[in-house]
Each structure stands twice: as C-alpha cells, then as structure tokens.
Amino acid sequence: MNEPMFRVTDLKQYAYCPRIIYYYACLPHVRPTTYKMEAGREAHIEERAREQRRGLRVYGLPEGERHFGVELASEVLGLRGRVDMAVRTADEAIPVEYKDTTGRGGRHWELQLAAYGMMLEEKWGLPVRRGFLYSIPNRQAREVRLTARLRSKVRAAVEAMQRIVEQEEMPGPAKRRAQCVVCEFRRFCNDVL
Q: What crossing angle do the helices spanning 18-26 and 8-16 adopt, rounded to 10°?
C-alpha cells in the first residue's frame, strides 16, 4: 500500500481541525504535549482498571467479552490504532472509547469511534452497529450509532487527510475559532488569534 497509514487519533484530530494533520504529517518535529494530554493518558489507565472490576450494565449489555487495548489496522481504510475497549457478543462487536470530560463530545470523537468500529468489523468478522463514548468523570456511556453516513464521513476524512499530506499544503483553520484557544498548535497558526 503506497498511501500513508494514519492513526485513528490523526483522524480525530483532523476532524477537530484540519491543520493538525498537516502539522503532524508535514512537520513531524512539531508535536507539543500538553498537561491535558498527559492527564488524559493517566485517566485512561485508571479507567481500564475500574472497567475490569465492573459489569457491562453501564452499556446496557447483559453479557459480552471485554478486550482492552485492541490493536487494529486496516489497509482498506488506511488507518491503524488501538481502541480502549471492545466488547464481543454472540452477534456483534462494540467499540468503547474513554473520554476524560464531562461534556458530550463532538463529531471528531464520533468519527474516531466509527473508524474503530469499521476496523473491528474487518478484524473480528462481526457486525458493528454501535459504539460507546464513556465519560470517565460522569461514569456514563453514550451510545453512538455507526450509520452509513458516519462511515462515509470516515472514508471522506481519510481521503482529505491523504490530499493534505500529498500536497503538503496547510488547510484553513478550524471553523469554530473558540477551538483555537485551547489548541496545542495555536502558536503555529499566525492567522488566528
């Protein structure tokens, strides 16, 4: 495969702001790490330990087999990554992503979840009709349906990311400028703020 193999995290970042994939792929030495990123990693580790002790009731599932940190890759999608948790039932696979926030989350998280679901289908040969975004502070799971439209958005985003890398051209800034205030790449974008 000649196309770049993006991480699912890259897809999530692209959906948040298209410039982030440009910085990651075209300027690889520019990768700031923030306190929020480190705190999120720690929260994921702690949540995995808690998840292993509780049942699947929070997901509305009577039964299922949990798998943590499942490595996924798809040449078809041009993506790779590690889903926080995947649940295998008799008739479906369900990706679960932990989020260290009290908010509902945005479309970028839904794309991330859909990408993991699409790769789980490929790997396990089970249908993936839904996934869950689990809020660590709220201890609540929000179901996200993996519709044909959402899957199409994943494919379109990966194609757009490939064009950015191939053309090495910085895209426009995020549509919502409020995002720029908390972005780790803010100081590289001289045309915003």
A: 130
